[in-house]
Design a protein that fits this description.
The chain is built from 6 helices and 18 strands. By secondary structure, it is an alpha+beta fold.
């Protein structure tokens, strides 16, 4: 179901939907919490204030009887203690279940391995932040609610450190740069994001050139914000789309392993000890295989 907001301004989404759909207030709140009701395709809280021309998406195919089940997986766990774990996500693995994809996600594997925080509901337990299915690299996962709240606050206050490596099309002549451009849902394709002033959020990406090739550049990126597809959208916006990205840039695909984008470093303050911790993982084989083609 899709509802376009054309009759109100600054009204909470949960209050608005009570009068619009045949669901109870508790049902609406549950669907919002589990990500089955979105605004402009973004997950929101029940307190989100609607604006004119917002598009509300309600997934009516969700089955209340579906259980997210633990699955034994060979996870690459970089660090673990009683409060959290850091995992190196492989290429092609979806982070959490969603309608139409309830199995073989990182969450399924994490549930088998350990208890997780309950803050994000049964579909996203423990998940503090996400990366795309075909982006590889480091994620921190909360085992309890206290740790989850601390880590989420650090993300909100921009005190975490997130470093990515990307291979982009084109030769970047400047050694460093900052992209400060708002990101929102693409007006022509609701499955994509774009730089826009309409229903957008502040987004800042910093980059540094590591190596230049004849028709591509290897760069390091650091995020101040964590918008959906931020790096992919920002690099495409300035004319240097990520190599092998099937969605942004419209350049040729080298293979079907997805974009050359890797979450290499992750740093944060431990929720219990207060100690700063930083982790690093090497580029995956799929990234290296493509990178080597540009070195020849």
């Amino acid at each position: 179901m899709e509802i376009k907001v054309d009759d109100i301004e600054n009204v909470r989404i949960d209050h608005y939907l009570v009068d619009k759909v045949d669901y109870s207030r508790s049902k609406i709140e549950k669907l919002i919490k589990e990500g089955h009701i979105k605004v402009n395709n973004d997950i929101v809280k029940k307190s989100y204030l609607l604006h004119m021309n917002d598009i509300i998406y309600i997934d009516e195919d969700i089955n209340d009887e579906i259980d997210i089940v633990p699955e034994k997986m060979d996870l690459d766990i970089v660090y673990e203690d009683d409060d959290l774990l850091v995992v190196n996500k492989p290429n092609g693995m979806v982070v959490h279940p969603a309608p139409g994809n309830y199995h073989h996600t990182l969450v399924n594997g994490l549930m088998y391995h350990s208890s997780l925080s309950s803050i994000n509901g049964e579909f996203r337990p423990g998940i503090v932040h996400r990366i795309d299915a075909y982006t590889t690299g480091l994620l921190v996962v909360a085992k309890n609610d206290k740790a989850h709240m601390s880590l989420a606050k650090q993300l909100e206050e921009k005190t975490t450190y997130r470093e990515y490596i990307a291979l982009v099309w084109g030769v970047i002549n400047t050694d460093t740069g900052t992209i400060d451009a708002p990101i929102g849902r693409d007006a022509k394709d609701r499955k994509k994001m774009s730089v826009t002033d309409v229903n957008s959020k502040h987004a800042i990406t910093h980059f540094k050139v590591l190596e230049r090739y004849s028709n591509a550049t290897l760069i390091q990126l650091n995020l101040e914000t964590g918008r959906t597809h931020q790096i992919r959208v920002h690099m495409n916006y300035i004319g240097y789309p990520v190599v092998n990205d099937p969605v942004y840039g419209r350049r040729k695909l080298i293979d079907d392993t997805g974009q050359c984008l890797h979450a290499k470093k992750l740093g944060f303050t431990h929720p219990t000890t207060g100690k700063y911790m930083e982790f690093e993982c090497e580029l995956p084989e799929c990234f290296v295989n493509i990178l080597n083609q540009f070195k020849d």
